[in-house]
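Student: Hello, beginner here. Can you help me understand the protein record under this note? Any guidance would be welcome.
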Amino acid sequence: MTRFQSVWRLATAALIGIGLLVTAIAAAAEGDDALPLPRFVSVKSDRANVRTGPDRRRYPISWVFVKKGVPVEITGEYEDWRKIKDLDGAEGWMHESLLSPDRYAIVTGGQRAVYLQPDSGSRTVYFAESGVTGRLDRCLKDWCELTVDGNTGWIPKTQIWGARADETF
């Protein structure tokens, strides 16, 4: 092998390595942007500002969440900011540091039975009033496992807000 061939191979290997490194850095920087939209997350703290746009200095606070664990739907992303929608359809922007991937849901449409199994023929474990927030432990095609105040059971997905109709986890 000539010296030129050795240098050529070394340069080629270096360029391939740099290309792989740039790809890895770009993927790591992308972060949550690689996740599907829309998607559900929850409010991370007991006080979280929602702004009219994606910047602390240029956009005023529109409203403030005062409860941890409220589900919100991410509908858009801009850098470290997430455009969110709440149960009532109100939209605004939150910094990603104020959001958690932990899943919660809000019971909708009146008092709802929560069952022992994902089957309306199984035993009722408890009743949850409309507006009650609980942790989503998992969701099947039509049912979600919901925990409220330490009580766990299954509720039809159509009776909560916080899980997409087509998602399972």
Observations:
- The CA atoms of residues 114 and 155 lie 5 Å apart.
- The first helix runs from residue 3 to 30.
